[in-house]
């Protein structure tokens, strides 16, 4: 009897691993935020329209981008009319914390437009552990991604435009979060 059980062990282990992978695949869901989503905070604040007669002045502008057939949020860096404040954007989120430990991470994908060519500091900070990573990224790549983010902590994405010697622009098309359960994603407003 012991010999029969021992010979079944690889099969049982294989079935358990397959079930865990299927559960993990099913449990992960995608949440996509357009660049105009109110949960994304722009500093200085984004003007509600690109109409210059509205009296709002910001380095962040709504731009109709024909290359992606959508509206993007764009900046070409600090402007004197807005106090030369370096443009930044923030998004704070957390995945579901009630799932098994094997489903322990989420991912973030930021999509710049094809016209984006600026260099930015891309920072992720997890609270309450106060773990932070920063990377300088040229936004001319088609996607900026961060994987393996902790589900059990609030994670803040911070993107800071880096002014250069030549004119550049940073466009945000959308941000996609891959989380354990989209119904339990917490998105918190961060005021910079």
Could you outline the blueprint of secondary structure elements for this entry?
Layout: H1 2-27, E1 29-34, E2 41-43, E3 60-65, E4 70-75, E5 88-94, E6 105-112, E7 119-127, E8 131-138, E9 144-150, E10 154-162, E11 170-179, E12 186-188
Antiparallel strand pairs: 1-11, 2-5, 3-4, 4-11, 5-10, 5-12, 6-9, 6-11, 7-8, 7-10
Point out poorly predicted stretches: 1-26, 99-103, 188-192
What is the mean predicted local confidence, pLDDT? 78
Strand pairing plus helix content: what structural class?
mainly beta
Major beta sheet summary: 6 strands, antiparallel
H-E string: HEEEEEEEEEEEE
Distance between the termini: 66 Å
Radius of gyration: 21 Å
Instruction: State the share of residues found in helices, binned by percent.
Output: 10-25%
Give the percentage of residues in beta strands: 35-45%
- Overall spatial form: globular
Question: What's the helix count?
Answer: 1
How many runs of DSSP E, i.e. beta strands? 12
Overview of this protein structure:
Strands 1, 3, 4, 6, 9 and 11 form a 6-stranded antiparallel β-sheet that branches. Mean pLDDT is 78; it is low at 1-26, 99-103 and 188-192. It is built from 1 helix and 12 strands; from the N terminus they run αββββββββββββ. With 192 residues, it is mainly beta. A hairpin with a 3-residue loop joins strand 7 (119-127) and strand 8 (131-138). The chain has one helix at 2-27, and strands at residues 29-34, 41-43, 60-65, 70-75, 88-94, 105-112, 119-127, 131-138, 144-150, 154-162, 170-179, 186-188. The N and C termini lie far apart (66 Å). The radius of gyration is 21 Å and the shape is globular. The longest helix is centred in the first third of the chain and has 26 residues, at 2-27.
